[in-house]
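testing teh design pipeline on a random one, pls ignore if ur not involved
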């Protein structure tokens, strides 16, 4: 009997949206028709979204990739002996040698698209659980020290040193501490959290368990955006499998020593802010809280709480398993390790790129993204989500690094990069920023709640040609007020896209 052929088909939401399930079903049916024995493994995505559904076949020379595959292509793939790595017009050769993928530094996303996301055996075979195994033999203070030494900073946008946050929570004396994962991925053009949760959920869970060991927490919450039902289903199964395997430890009564809960958000962008998220977890309206105290001292239900983003926690197993020096070797300046950049908008090759800090915006857009899908010139890129700055083409050689971007009046945010071609109206984009803030504001502080409304009205007057000079001055004053007076980054950062649009594209404002 011939050896069984292992074929990998994605089950990531992006791949499902373009027919991955139908392709997988067609492959199974065609193999049965031809009496070819196959094992069809469903994986996450490698992040090359423009090639999805990307089908891979295990051969003696490694995994060979084909895509984007449609159900109608399946018969011709078998005719070309794709199940043996045969050549086909949809073939890309070895998956790991596709330039888009080969030029990356995959640390956090090393297993995405490679393993069955719900197989603990697969996870462990590809390096999973090694970090936890090492952490269990370490003192709490040593775990915190290792994370601190690695230079890991919050990947949710703020870039706060993770080790300092953990050290603060670890130093608190309390009968209960919490680990909360902020998976409310609401920035435009971002999908890294979803890709990781759907492709390697155990990595996130392992990071949370290590965090719990480090600070002495016994309970954790993952706050996931409601628009991610597929990710939620994957995560629920993963948590159950993890706890059944005893990987969270066991109390005398058999319950998990670290109990993990999944909670779904209701779609409020403001709940991406940590204090709003904690309020929502407590069953309250998601509103920003005045600090101090910070959550690491008094957070969920008034207890010491670590709040980290998905990518921050998912980086921890790699750091503990291979050491701080290994992780710190990637990056530049105070930005160490890697960042998941997400390419969206008018881009030829949209998807996820994990690179060490220091890669330029131009490299991401041109080398990885391949320029615009429309073929039109790139006019600008918005980096850092809907509250991020618009970076003009003349500044595309900027290094993607927290400090370099801040110096240029921009920010990294969650790593989202949205590309706009030369048809974009920047005055309308500035108006959108104010309108977005108006809709998503929690309403607690006046500068954000009212400033955004007045900002939108003022931009409307500028667009209509009413006293442009005077209204541009009023808009600048409003931006000052929102930056200086807002309680959180919702109002405080809204002026960033507005000011960058006015500064770099004055012609769209009648300048």
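output:
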């Amino acid at each position: 009997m011939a050896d069984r052929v292992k074929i990998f088909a994605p089950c990531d939401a992006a791949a499902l949206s373009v027919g991955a399930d139908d392709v997988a079903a067609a492959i199974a049916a065609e193999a049965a028709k031809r009496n070819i024995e196959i094992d069809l493994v469903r994986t996450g995505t490698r992040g090359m979204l423009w090639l999805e559904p990307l089908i891979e076949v295990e051969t003696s020379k490694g995994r060979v990739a084909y895509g984007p595959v449609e159900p109608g292509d399946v018969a011709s793939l078998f005719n070309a002996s794709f199940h043996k790595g045969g050549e086909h017009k949809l073939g890309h050769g070895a998956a790991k040698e596709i330039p888009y993928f080969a030029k990356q530094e995959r640390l956090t996303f090393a297993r995405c698209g490679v393993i069955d996301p719900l197989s603990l055996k697969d996870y462990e075979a590809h390096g999973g659980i090694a970090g936890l195994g090492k952490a269990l033999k370490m003192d709490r203070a040593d775990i915190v020290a290792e994370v601190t030494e690695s230079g890991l900073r919050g990947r949710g946008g703020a870039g706060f040193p993770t080790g300092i946050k953990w050290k603060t929570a670890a130093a608190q004396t309390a009968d209960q501490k919490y680990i909360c994962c902020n998976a409310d991925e609401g920035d435009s053009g971002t999908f890294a959290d979803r890709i990781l949760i759907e492709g390697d959920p155990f990595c996130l869970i392992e990071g949370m368990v290590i965090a719990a060991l480090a600070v002495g927490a016994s309970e954790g919450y993952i706050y996931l955006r409601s628009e991610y039902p597929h990710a939620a289903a994957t995560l629920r199964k993963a948590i159950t499998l993890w706890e059944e395997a005893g990987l969270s430890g066991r109390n005398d009564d058999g319950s998990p020593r670290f109990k993990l809960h999944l909670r779904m958000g209701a779609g409020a962008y403001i709940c991406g802010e940590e204090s709003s998220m904690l309020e929502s977890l407590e069953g309250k309206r998601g509103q920003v809280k005045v600090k101090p105290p910070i959550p690491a001292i008094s957070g969920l239900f008034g207890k010491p709480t670590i709040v980290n983003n998905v990518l921050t926690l998912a980086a921890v197993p790699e750091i503990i398993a291979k050491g701080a020096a290994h992780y710190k070797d990637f990056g530049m300046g105070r930005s160490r390790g890697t960042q998941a950049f997400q390419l969206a908008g008018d881009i030829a090759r949209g998807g996820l790129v994990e690179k060490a800090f220091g890669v330029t915006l131009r490299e991401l857009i041109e080398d990885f993204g391949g320029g615009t899908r429309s073929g039109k010139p790139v006019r600008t890129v918005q980096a850092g989500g809907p509250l991020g700055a618009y970076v003009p083409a003349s500044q595309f050689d900027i290094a993607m690094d927290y400090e370099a971007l801040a110096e240029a009046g921009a920010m990294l945010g969650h790593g989202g990069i949205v590309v706009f071609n030369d048809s974009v109206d920047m005055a309308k984009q500035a108006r959108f920023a104010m309108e977005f803030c108006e809709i998503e504001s929690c309403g607690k502080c006046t500068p954000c709640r009212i400033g955004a409304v007045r900002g939108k009205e003022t931009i409307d007057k500028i667009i209509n040609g009413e006293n442009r000079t005077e209204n541009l001055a009023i808009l600048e004053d409003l931006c000052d007020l929102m930056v200086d007076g807002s309680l959180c980054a919702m109002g405080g950062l809204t002026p960033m896209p507005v000011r960058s649009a006015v500064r770099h594209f004055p012609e769209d404002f009648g300048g």
